[in-house]
Amino acid sequence: MILRNHRDQLEKFGFVELPGSLSPSDISRLEYFYSKFYEKSKSILYEIRDKATTISQYYLNSTDNLIVVPEELDSSLISRIEYLTGANADFRGFVIDNIQPTIEAIVGKELNIFKDKCNLKLPGSDGFPPHQDYIAYQHFPPDYNITAMIPIDDMDIENGCVQFAKNYRESAFVNSANVENIASGQRIFDTDDRGGIVAEVVTKIKWQASTPNAGDIVLFDHFIPHFSQANMTQSPRRAYFITFSLAEQGDWYEFYFANKRENYNSPKFHVANPTGNKPSRS
Ligand SMILES: O=C(O)CCC(=O)C(=O)O
């Protein structure tokens, strides 16, 4: 059966592509929600500017708003928007009804939403260096996380699609000197000061670009190394990333985001974030 095959791929490689998972009306809904999130995020940035406060200070006093992360080199441009299902009950219902059941069927367990975001990747916006999401999530109680990447725009190499480490689970892949830790039987590699995987490991990885279209979903676990390049096109490359944990390990969504509001600048919330290119305004 298809789902059995998907589960096997996920277990073997750490990621699996699910083409054509969403209907045309689902895709329109994703666009509609995005327009709401984007307008609200702009108004939050204006509010922060008008109050002459900092983002980290603003979020200390805001408990139920979207969390906006601006571009590193231009704080008036949005890099990503978080707390989506927390701030919008309709979007939460959409995810629970239209996305979560497929993932639960593949994983074979009930899930809870752990965190969520939409990456905008504006024209010229930088990529994410190679990293394992485990580095960011290890600070929280669930020991299994799986992310559904849900493109709003078709993704390709030019606009900075995500590329996965196809071979990193092969036993001869890397010598143990570059393994920092073993978690749930998976290797966690040494990191640089941004939380990215060290170059000695990165150069041994066989990268596979994932180029999903709107309507597809790509699932990946928190161990698989992945990276993306800058968006070299003239259009944004928008995608939702909804991360789940096992329901049997509790519901950590509000805990995660409360922690983020209290520690907005903590490196654990900015692992391997893009920093280099300044996006254009067009
Ligand atoms: O949006 C991208 O290009 C990559 C995102 C990513 O690697 C991440 O959020 O961990």
Question: Would you summarize the structure shown here?
Answer:
With 282 residues, the chain is an alpha+beta fold. Helices cover 30% and strands 23% of the residues.
Q: What labels would you give this structure?
A:
seven-stranded antiparallel sheet; globular; 12 strands; alpha+beta; three-stranded antiparallel sheet; 9 helices
Query: What value does the Rg take, in angstroms?
Result: 18 Å
- Named CATH topology: Jelly Rolls
- In which range does the helix fraction lie? 25-40%
Gap from first CA to last CA = 46 Å
Class in CATH? Answer: Mainly Beta
Percent strand equals 15-25%
Count up the domains.
1
SSE ordering: HEHHEEHHHEHEEEEHEEEEH
Label the overall shape.
globular
Main sheet properties: 7 strands, antiparallel
Overall SS class: alpha+beta
Strand ordering within the main sheet? 1-10-5-12-4-3-2
Please write out the topology:
Blueprint: H1 2-13, E1 15-18, H2 24-50, H3 55-60, E2 67-71, E3 74-82, H4 84-87, H5 89-98, H6 100-107, E4 111-119, H7 134-137, E5 145-151, E6 162-165, E7 179-183, E8 186-189, H8 199-202, E9 207-209, E10 217-221, E11 226-228, E12 239-246, H9 253-262
Antiparallel strand pairs: 1-10, 2-3, 3-4, 4-12, 5-10, 5-12, 6-9, 6-11, 7-8
The protein binds 2-oxoglutaric acid (AKG).
